[in-house]
Amino acid sequence: MILVVFAHVCHFCLGDSKMGYNAVFILFRLPCFFMISGWLFESVAQRPFLENVRHKFMVQIIPTFIFLLLLAPPPEFFYRLGTLKGGYWFTFALFEYFILYMIIVRISRKWSFLMALVITLGSFIYARYYDSIRSSAVGWQLYAIDFSGFLSITTWRLFLFFYIGAWMRRHFDAFIRWTNKPVIIILITMFFFLIASTSHRDNMWFEMFRYYAGGITGMWMVFTCFRLSDSWLKKFHISKPLQYVGTRTLDIYLLHFFFLPRSLMAYTDQLKAFDSQFVEFLVILAVSLIILILCLLASYIIRLSPFLGHYLFGTKYDKKASTDTPSRNQCSI
Fold first, then answer.
1. Are 35 and 168 in contact (CB under 8 A)?
2. Where are the domains positioned within the chain?
3. Cβ-contact 314, 330 below 8 angstroms
4. Rounded Cα gap, residues 255 and 113, in angstroms
């Protein structure tokens, strides 16, 4: 979540998505996010289908529509319902991932990986040619393509990372044994940085390989590093703050667009004048952490009201308690 805010500071506030090592972070940021989401969902995926859909709709879609309305009131609201949803595409896409995952594992768990792969790669190819297809479409074809944009089908190219997260949860012991081997950790890390050192090429197959190989090795590298450094995080009192941010990911995601300092665009050239990615990283990280703190403060205030906490963040409250006692499942995306 910190890296999501970091990326949006780069893009919306400084106008350059490659500043401060963000070109490297982008390889594993969303894969990590969706992998964790799949990890968390696996344990509840076998509950009744409609129960899961209703619960996730209340937690993700309704709050997102409310915040999108606040950020872009009508008539602009209706123009924000394309693929990116005014920046709120993540919760829409994730809601659809929940549904896709439940469908394919109910069809056949044995062939679920193949189905996930077909969905993912098909979406990647469609996303690559989406603009050109849309520009040549007319009549009902244009409406059909725009509807696919509303459904965020082009974002299904990230579904594989969600599926892998669920797979890791099912085979966790085997995964831990595998990644506990130093040689495996070294190879994964080396392979990730080898991919990160390559630049963009106008070749679909190369970009597809870079996108998924970089995403898978990157998210496994980050996951393993955090797992192995747990004692150090606790020693330096970093573990609990990070866990707290983890339980407020949805809140931060929905709120942070309101706190992005767009006025920083005037200082982009001055920051670039240092000609140092590390300096850019420190400045952008500092701004991101300030935004994060403001989001957590706003979240705390909003959650003081059970009504607002429920409808804005999907929080489930203990009716017997007088204070905010949301369940853990309700707190995270």
1. yes
2. 43-170, 176-228
3. yes
4. 34
